[in-house]
Structures are given as structure tokens and as C-alpha cells.
Amino acid sequence: MRTVKGVEDVEDVGGVRAIGATARPPRVRGTAGVFLAVAFAASGVLGAVQPALGVPAEVVQLTQFAPAAAVAALTVFQRKRVVRLLRGGALRGEGRTGALLATAALIIAVGVLAYVVHPGRAGGAWFTRPGALEQPFALITVAQLIGACGEEIGWRCLLQPLLRTRFGAVASSVTVGVLWGLWHVQVFAQRPAYAAAFLAATIGMSVALGLALDGTGGFHALVNLGMPLFLDEEAGGTLAMACFGASSLLAALLWAARAGVAAGAAPATLPGT
Question: What is the DSSP string of 184-220?
């Protein structure tokens, strides 16, 4: 226990200090608002310039770097706080990279199984050979990892720890999942069932990632690679996305059970935030 800038009863627990009864949670609306505003605006700009730059969307979508741009913008005004959030989020998730990568594989595997055995499937191939893709698979793999890190540095490495200072682990993870899903605005031009399944997927993955907070880039990249190979939503449509959403929610339940909702119910604050 120690007092920091007038805050009492702040206890260090595994690199994260739990807020005591007399502590005042830091304000998050302004920081979160700036992050979201820049992330959405930058996404629109990057999406507009991608065709002009000739970058194939199959390799990487430039919009994936919008959250990183938002983090960079925040760093200009709140450098110390941003650095603490990025460092503190990584501290809380140490040692869980392997479990997260296994979760990514589980999401794809369960989603594929549900899709293949579903009586409503129209038939046809459910697996796309890497060599059948229009771009070299090695290039796609590297680009997807970089793009996934561009997203995760914003959603899970900054916004998740920020909201965690005010809310429990599950509540903050669900909130980030909803915002992450809404950020993919192009998805909502699809049928409502497709959009709802996609939102379920982002929420489910966000809970797993939020409870782990480590290895998020690798998890995201594996999912992004697994989708075009095994659950191509362009070929499978709403059913493929529904299976993906359901398997993501299953992964979220497994992580919640592993972590224990009660253990993650109390807000926490990162050092110096």
C-alpha cells in the first residue's frame, strides 16, 4: 500500500494497482473519445487511398493501421499516459501468448466444424489452398501480422487498459468488442444477420484478448489468415460468419471460466494513470 498523488489505498497486484475504496478512478472519456475519433477518421482516409496506392486488400487492408494512427495522435498530447497504458497492458498479460494462439486455432477449428456439418450449407469446397490465393501466401502472412499489430496496439494495448481503470475485465472487454465491431463500418452494409454475427465475433474475440492482454497481434493474424482459407465469408456468406461468431463466443466463455468473472470484476489502474 502507498499513496500516489493524493490517492490512498492503491495496491500493486501483478504490475497493476487495484483501486482502493478511497481512490479516484482517472478520467477516461476524453482519451477514449480522441482515440475513437481519430481511429474512425483515419480508417475512412486509409480506405479511400488504398485503391489509389494499388495495395491488394487480400494482402492487407490499410484501415488496419487506423488504430495505430490514433495511438500516435494521443501520444502527442498524452505521451506519458499512453506509454504507461501500453506497458501496463503487456505486464498484465505476461505468459499467455501460447494460450491465445491456441484459442485462435480453436476458433477457426470449431467454426469450420460447425460450418461443414450445418444442414443449411450449400455444399462446395470449404478449404482454399494457399496457392490458390491471388497473392503469395508468405506475403499475406507477414502483412497480416503487421496489420493485426496495427489494430491491436490501439484496441487491446491502449483502449482496453484505459477502460479497465474504470470497469471490470469482462465489461471493458465487451465494450471494446462492440466498438471494434462498429469500427468495421463496411460490414453493416451486409445483411443484418451477417452484421450481427460479425459483431458477435468481435465481442467474443475481444473478451478472450482482454482477459489475456498478451500475444494479441499473433492471435489476430492467425484468425485473419484462417478466415480466407477455411471460412471464406465471401463464399459461405452469412452461415460462415455465423459459425465464426459462435466459435468466438465459445472461446470467450472458455477464457471467462478460466480467469473467473469474479477475479476480473474490480477495476484496476495502471501505474501512474
Answer: -GGGGGS-HHHHHHHHHHHHHHHHHHHHH-SSHHHHH
